[in-house]
Every structure is written in C-alpha cells, then in structure tokens.
Amino acid sequence: MRQAFRIRSLPGAAGQETLEENLPKENKEQSAVPALMKHYHDAYLAAIGEKPHINGPKDGKTLQALTKAYGKETVRDTITAMVQSQDPFIVASGRTMGVLSSCWNKLRTEMKRQHPAAVRPEACRHQPACTDAAACTKRRLAESKGNYRDDSLGD
C-alpha cells in the first residue's frame, strides 16, 4: 500500500500542518512506538544495568495496541512503573513488553496507590476520583442536571 506524504521545509510553520497531523490515527500510534521503545530501553538500562531483549515486531505490536487503547503518555508512565516495580511476578518475569501487557491492570493499580493524583483525570475534583476523563464529564453533566446520587453517602 502506497501512502502520500506532504513534504515541507519548516515543520510546524504557520499555515502548515506537521507530518503527524497528516497521518491517519493508526499511523500516529505507529509513530509513537519507536519513542516508547526507546523509553523502555533507556528505563530498563538505567534500572537493571543491562540492555533489555527487544523483539521488534512483537513488542512493537504490543506498544501499538496499548497506545491505541490508552494513549502515549499513559503507556510511557506505565513502562516506567513496570521497570521500577518490585512486584515479585514482574521481577521474576523479566519486565518484558509481554509483562507490560499482561500486568497492565496490576501496574495501573499500583501506580494509583503510590501516586493517586498521577492516575486522576486532569481537573477532576470528585471523591472518589473518576477513572477517566469521559467518566468525569459524564458525572459533571449528571450533577448539573441534578441526576447524580452518591451511593457512598448511605442516603
């Protein structure tokens, strides 16, 4: 399949879009993979003291799927949490991309326990915190219409 790209001399110049903005969503996720792979490599090297084994095609697909589902920044933060994790299963499994995918929920829960504000959606003031920005918006709309009932109050 052949793709056409607009060539320009000044990326981000006024009146011109960047190359990434021209890419379809699937290609944006693919373009995040090399940066995430480098972050994994660097974080692993810093934490363990040796280079990780990276299976390019397999690990790339894993990162692409996670990026599509959660976004680049969330995946980056979770990679950091995995490499720094002291969980016995994660340590024994070697902190691979497969472990990142299979232990995603465990890692995100661990991150939330250690740094509750890091997982909270930006601008969310609810207690308990909303799980994501969409849930926060839905909750704010329900509150503004008077349809929200907090079951934790026991009324």
Describe the overall structure.
The structure is a single chain. The protein is mainly α. It folds into 2 domains: 23-114; 120-147, no CATH class. 62% of the residues lie in helices and 0% in strands. Helix 2 crosses helix 3, helix 2 runs parallel beside helix 4 (72-84) and helix 3 crosses helix 4 (72-84). The protein is elongated. 17% of the residues are buried. Residues 4-12 and 15-21 have low confidence and may be disordered.
Query: How many strands in all?
Result: 0
**Helical percent range?**
55-70%
List unreliable stretches of 5+ residues: 4-12, 15-21
Major β-sheet profile: none
Computed structural class: mainly alpha
Principal-axes geometry comes out as elongated
Question: Can you give keywords for this protein?
Answer:
2 domains; mainly alpha; 155 residues; elongated
Helix and strand topology:
Layout: H1 19-22, H2 25-48, H3 56-70, H4 72-84, H5 88-93, H6 97-102, H7 104-114, H8 116-119, H9 133-145
Concise description?
This protein is an all-alpha fold.
